[in-house]
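#help-structures
NK: newbie question, is this the right format to request a structure? protein is Outer membrane protein beta-barrel domain-containing protein
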Amino acid sequence: MKPIKTLIPTAALLAAACTAHAQSYRNAAGARVEFGNDLVWAGASFKHRFTEHSALETSLLFGGDAIVPELGYVYMHPAFPGMRNFYANWGIGVAAPLYDGKAEWLLRPSLGLEYRFPKTPLQLGIDWRPSYRLSGDDSYERFVFGRFSVPLRFVF
């Protein structure tokens, strides 16, 4: 019981400190769920912003008997004039699904929207993430058009 008594005040203090800086951030970490084509991947997601408009994003997803590490570049800009918390983004990256002792290489473009909740350290997004298979077993589709993801991140 003692660890919980320590954890709750520590979490509240951390959340209060991050809320003070909710409008600008360098890093965001959380979860991503990706779905489409009868396959769901879910796991951890991390984004590091280098500038106001460019970021490096990485994910480690699990699902369908696969482990899927991903790495990509994302360009962000305000989505709607006068709305500070909506951002449109597009990017390009690679993924390497590992399953059955094999690995594939996927080219992963992305196009999406993200929303920063005011006065909180939370960010929610929706992305279209098709993939083009560069290598691997020819029994799978080369281009997968209908893949989408929802990231939910804690910004700091």
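mod (FA): yep, format's fine, and the tokens are attached above. The longest strand covers residues 66-78.
NK: thank you!
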